[in-house]
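In this section we walk through a basic example: taking a raw amino acid sequence and producing a predicted 3D structure, encoded as discrete structure tokens. The instruction is simple. Fold the sequence below.
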Amino acid sequence: YEVMNPAVSFRLHETGSIIGQAQVASGAAHIAVSDLPIVQDYKTYPLLQINFIRLPVLFIANQVTISDLTAQQVKGIYNGQYQNWKEIGGHDLPITVVLRSDFSGITWVLRDWLQAPVTPFTSIRVPSNLRALEQVVAIPGAISAVGGMPFGYDVRIMSIDGCLPEQSTTQDCDYPLLYNGSIVINKQPSI
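The resulting token sequence is shown next.
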């Protein structure tokens, strides 16, 4: 697009849904991608949110021998109840949870689904989906909740209660964790 329109340029910053909303509200950015409805702090600003896709939050893991978790096991991993994959049917490998920042829409969606604080036994915080994928690939036994398909990464997408995200529309299963991908713009842009 920039080649055909040399007067236009784009800069992409991976910050998280809440920071993206704040930047559009303040005029620091013209557009943001968000996994969340507009948060309370920015509801008084002239922001317009356009949902364009409904996606699953995927649980990806590295070098684990199981491929299906129950919703209760996922909750147990994220609340610190389980510290090793052998506790839930896997081999003897410590569980490391790779968490997105508190500004991430995925983190908010996950917290809402868990209906509890996210307090894993061992965790690493990262700023973006890409960094979460990289950390999971680098750490045997790591697990993370990410938005979007991890194409090109050697990770296992975990089914939840026997349901993979792509099966929920073709089989009789109900994947438990979905979010709306949206763009957020200012209704009264400064340009």
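Looking at the output, two observations stand out. The radius of gyration is 18 Å. Strands lie at 31-34, 47-61, 68-69, 96-100, 123-126, 142-147, 156-157, 159-160, 178-186. In the next section we compare this with other chains.
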